[in-house]
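To illustrate the input format used throughout this study, we show a single complete record. The first block contains the structure-token representation of the backbone; no residue identities are included at this stage. The design step must infer an amino acid for every position from geometry alone.
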């Protein structure tokens, strides 16, 4: 599928989604509630068959978090970036996708550890790099550490 064909198909499937085509890949932006059903369809439907999650990360935009998932279909050779905008900075949460793509289990733990995003129904959500009880989330824009050097 071309980017335009993929966009048309996804627009029909999820009319509330918005798209960004400025970069190399087609980006679809959804709410956290829409994320899990969309991801199941992207993996399970033969016309999409996104069988490879090659990047999962989070971006802190000060007033919201953006979960970012890079997906590829090895059969169809198309790539899609799925973004879920999380507006609750005090209790950021989204459903896990590790039962869809096994590699997400590790990446979700990393995002939890460094941004504090909770992945609902994750089988082993705990800190990955930092020790339990570490105060705060180091990759958040509002994180302050006494050892940080301000420029």
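Output of the design step:
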């Amino acid at each position: 599928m071309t980017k335009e064909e993929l966009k048309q198909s996804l627009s029909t499937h999820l009319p509330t989604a918005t798209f960004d085509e400025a970069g190399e890949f087609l980006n679809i932006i959804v709410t956290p509630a829409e994320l899990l059903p969309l991801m199941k369809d992207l993996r399970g439907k033969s016309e999409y068959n996104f069988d490879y999650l090659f990047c999962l990360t989070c971006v802190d935009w000060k007033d919201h978090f953006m979960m970012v998932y890079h997906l590829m279909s090895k059969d169809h050779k198309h790539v899609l970036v799925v973004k879920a905008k999380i507006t609750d900075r005090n209790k950021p949460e989204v459903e896990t996708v590790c039962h869809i793509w096994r590699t997400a289990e590790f990446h979700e733990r990393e995002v939890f550890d460094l941004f504090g995003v909770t992945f609902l129904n994750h089988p082993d959500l705990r800190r990955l790099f930092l020790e339990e009880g570490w105060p705060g989330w180091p990759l958040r824009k509002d994180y302050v550490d006494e050892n940080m050097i301000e420029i």
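Structural context for interpreting the output: The mean pLDDT is 95. The beta strands are 18-20, 26-30, 52-60, 65-72, 79-86, 93-95, 118-120.
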